[in-house]
Structure to design on (224 residues):
């Protein structure tokens, strides 16, 4: 991605300070009883914190004499971190209850916090789980009621959440694995030890502003 208008600092030292500030701010706002922000599921906060810890693990060795491989490892860690940061910011920090003052403190771009019709995701996902192969299930999805399988115009795709559980979950908050699927079908692969377990899946459309639509029903399948 071009850095010309990117909110993430290009310089590694500046990136580290920026990332640390972001994590500390999010953790502070989502802590307490009640927290100032209660719209971010805990699993996403844990993922953000883990991404920063992973980054520091490989960044710190480059602050002292090091071999070239350390730079490669640090660059890989930064790419992993950005793959967590960008969807987190789009999904949770662009709109209320996060304010422009909050975004200033996190050094993020300002956004119109008034939700208008173009920030609403009216479409719902219709999907099926198809078994094809060992330790693999395929999630075929489309707009509910549509004939074709194209994602809605202006959407990133379908957010798929899933988990292998011993009993049906009460709601989607119990599904701790997630991904963004821009095309259908999307393949979910599982380790050998999860064979014969039951995977539970739900989906929702997400537009380019990071707004999620309504979660689908939760469906399940036995992992082959």
């Amino acid at each position: 991605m071009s850095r010309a208008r990117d909110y993430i600092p290009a310089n590694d030292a500046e990136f580290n300070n920026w990332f640390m500030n972001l994590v500390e701010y999010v953790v502070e706002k989502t802590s307490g009883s009640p927290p100032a922000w209660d719209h971010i599921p805990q699993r996403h906060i844990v993922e953000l914190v883990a991404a920063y810890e992973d980054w520091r693990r490989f960044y710190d060795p480059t602050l002292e004499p090091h071999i070239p491989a350390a730079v490669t490892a640090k660059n890989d860690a930064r790419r992993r971190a950005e793959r967590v940061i960008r969807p987190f910011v789009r999904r949770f920090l662009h709109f209320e209850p996060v304010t422009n003052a909050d975004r200033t403190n996190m050094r993020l771009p300002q956004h119109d916090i008034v939700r208008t019709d173009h920030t609403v995701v009216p479409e719902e996902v219709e999907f099926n789980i198809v078994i094809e192969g060992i330790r693999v299930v395929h999630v075929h999805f489309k707009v509910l009621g549509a004939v074709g399988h194209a994602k809605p115009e202006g959407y990133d795709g379908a957010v798929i959440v899933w988990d292998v559980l011993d009993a049906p979950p009460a709601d989607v908050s119990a599904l701790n694995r997630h991904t963004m699927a821009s095309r259908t079908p999307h393949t979910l692969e599982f380790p050998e030890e999860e064979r014969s377990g039951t995977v539970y899946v739900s989906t929702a459309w997400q537009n380019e502003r990071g707004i999620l639509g309504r979660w689908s029903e939760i469906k399940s399948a036995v992992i082959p």
In short: Confidence is low (pLDDT under 50) at residues 113-118. The helical segments are 12-29, 42-59, 68-93, 100-105. DSSP finds four helices and seven strands in the chain.
